Amino acid sequence: MSTSPRSTDASWLTWVCLSRASFTVIFTAYSAVMPLLAPEWGMSASQAGLIQSAWHAGYLVSLFTIGFLADRYGAKRIFLGSSIAASASAMIFALFADNFLSAALLYGLTGLFSGGSYTPGLTLISERFVSGRRGRAMGYYLAAASFGYALALLFTGAVTPWFGWRGAFIVNACGPVIGTLIALYALRATPNIVHPAPAEQVKVNPLPVVLKNKPAMLVTWGYASHSWELLGLKAWMPAFFAAAAQMSGSTMTQAASLGAGLTAITYITSMAGGIAGGAISDRKGRTWTMLVMALASMACSFALGWMVSLPLWFITAVAALYSFFAIADSSVFSTAVTELVPPRYIGAAYSVRSVLGFGAGALSPWVFGVVLDATRAAEASPTWSWGLAWCSLGVGALLGPFATLRLRRMAESAQMAGGKR
């Protein structure tokens, strides 16, 4: 009895998603223990945020380079090669980071080698799934990342009280090692595809081709706005929950552990958001989904910080909704690129998107920390400090809806989701 293509695709996607989840365990390892490391290492809020920004900066460089390499050598080959490097760098960070400078350098190095599990994975999915099923498939892939983030926070919350932040780092660094092993198994029969350029375009520089593609660039600018908000959220949510827990009477260690656990709950809802966003965009259209989710997420950015003194159950409920909306359009942006850019240039398009998106995402955690430091220096109340800091994410997200509306008015938007704008 032969296996149907659909069931084969489902099995393949499951293994690839498990690999992605394992890689992302290291992504939130630092933010989960930030409330403990800031006083232990004598860091200001802006310095604490800068370590997370170093990760994003390294990730940005990785994604920019990886996209072009995937176009030239094939997504599978780059995916597997970078996975091995990511495993080594994650363990080096876990074992040797011991102050602000070493953590910034080593976490940045970890980010530098971690991009290979992202855009090449999206390329592999775009090569395997047709447009009508691609948004849902990419939604599952991005939801797998949220599952990995949640696992990291749960591991950290459980391990830190017994073995400290170093033990939590080491446990989380095992994630990329497991992800590499799963990837080797998942992709064992997947061909390494290199899309040839037309004969007349062999010498064409792919970067200008992407930059001149106005619809694709509008998607990219929307993604940059989205990334500012989403990556700032991921960096500071555990610390925000820890601050709220301390205001409720918890000790610092208890608050850090509780902050990690509550943030893990919000990542579970973000898994649902990633899947739902991709599926909705397949049915309702890409730009419609981008607009609805972006506006809902911005509303949460402008509201959440002012709730720091409210009961933890209420903050958790709002943060869970926030995480759902903030991630829901991620898969939509990723899918839209594959529908607006010729296959030969998808890697280059992802590289451009990564520079703008993760460039914004590298800055937002630092800006968030700068706002916290400035308001605390002005002796503002915790409500004002956290409220204004979260608003900085909402301000940075304002560009997204404008870019999406512009795209929606263009004829090229009919290329997405089988004609659903």
CATH fold title: Growth Hormone, Chain: A
CATH level-1 class: Mainly Alpha
The percent range for helix content is over 70%
Distance between the termini: 40 Å
The number of domains is 1
| Whole-number mean pLDDT | 83
CATH architecture: Up-down Bundle
CATH superfamily: MFS general substrate transporter like domains
What is the number of strand segments? Answer: 0
Series of H and E elements: HHHHHHHHHHHHHHHH
How many separate helices? 16
Oligomeric description of these chains: single chain
Helix-strand blueprint:
Layout: H1 5-23, H2 29-40, H3 45-73, H4 75-96, H5 100-112, H6 119-128, H7 131-186, H8 206-211, H9 214-247, H10 252-284, H11 286-304, H12 312-328, H13 330-340, H14 346-377, H15 382-396, H16 399-408
Walk me through what this model shows.
The structure is a single chain. By secondary structure, this protein is mainly α. It has a single domain (11-192, 206-419), classed as Growth Hormone, Chain: A (Up-down Bundle), CATH 1.20.1250. The chain has 16 helices and no strands. It has helices at residues 5-23, 29-40, 45-73, 75-96, 100-112, 119-128, 131-186, 206-211, 214-247, 252-284, 286-304, 312-328, 330-340, 346-377, 382-396, 399-408. α4 (75-96) crosses α7, α9 (214-247) runs antiparallel to α13 (330-340) and α10 packs parallel to α12. The longest helix has 56 residues, at 131-186. The two termini are 40 Å apart.
